[in-house]
């Protein structure tokens, strides 16, 4: 299977990695390259393709390895992998890079409810130390004066703003926002379906039909096409004999004929997956549960009656599914001149009266689209007037951005309310 490498992606990685292996007089080269963008756009996979094309050996670290029950273990792991990578350069005589996938998931802080541990602090401090002294990375309890070879570090994440700000600053980390354009998507999807007989015009039509979907959506559609063949195989073998036939069978793994990859069928399965995505967005049952728990379903509160939303099923089917969506406010919660609406003020009173804490988050247009909210200044008061004043101050500080009110149950440290109280337009 022939995979597509974006020229922009290839150029950015090739320049960053090569620059770290050169000695440029009087130039301070950032050791870390942070590749960020929305989920499912193939950041890690594009890195793998670039490494294969350039003949680069990659040493991988997962964001999940950056936490441990024992304080100091993740920081030691970073230093150990870095020294191993430097040794690979020396022994094998080829470029090597360290790749930390999903760094923001392991070391980022998304809101006030995210626990900030000693390991998180040590990971940030260790990465900053390595970026500042890339040829002098020591293990705890030992010291080796021999300079190490410089090893470029590639980190991926959805939102690098959740990381410790001094780590992300220019000079330590170079940033690259990966958002594939239409040409990139067509190239990548062509590689995914290269063996399935789709023409270039069909690939373009398929991409344009789902132009707002991430790259992984198209791979998932291809996998979904096989469902009917597998379902037929299960019924043929028998549901009680599938395990014996698939695992350690003397007949070997079952083989399947090539399914129908015609464009109308791909679009049909794509529409089904889009409908499933929309159901997840529309259900939001936690809001319904929390609305009942906070007694916001009374006429005087801020929950409007549930309204049925009818979603048509694809393929001109007459079946209609009813999904109930809860609306927290009878108005859009907009403020007028940085003043909270009467509905929002009443909601704040009810939250504080029931012992909940108040918090706020803000996001610009781009962060709002990716749901990457940032926390505002903490609101510690339990007085209604002070809380309202703090909320209005947050609105003034973030004029032109989305701002939402958060209600938090301090006993279980869980959110009970999320409501947008300011929109930029």
TrEMBL record:
Residues 331-424 form the Ribulose bisphosphate carboxylase small subunit domain. One of its GO terms (molecular function) is ATP binding. InterPro entries: ATPase_AAA_core, P-loop_NTPase, RCA-like, RuBisCO_activase_AAA_helical, RuBisCO_ssu_dom, RuBisCO_ssu_sf. Belongs to the RuBisCO activase family. Gene3D superfamilies: 1.10.8.1070, P-loop containing nucleotide triphosphate hydrolases, Ribulose bisphosphate carboxylase, small subunit. This is Ribulose bisphosphate carboxylase small subunit. PANTHER family: PTHR32429, RIBULOSE BISPHOSPHATE CARBOXYLASE_OXYGENASE ACTIVASE, CHLOROPLASTIC. It comes from Aerosakkonema funiforme FACHB-1375. Keywords: ATP-binding, Nucleotide-binding.
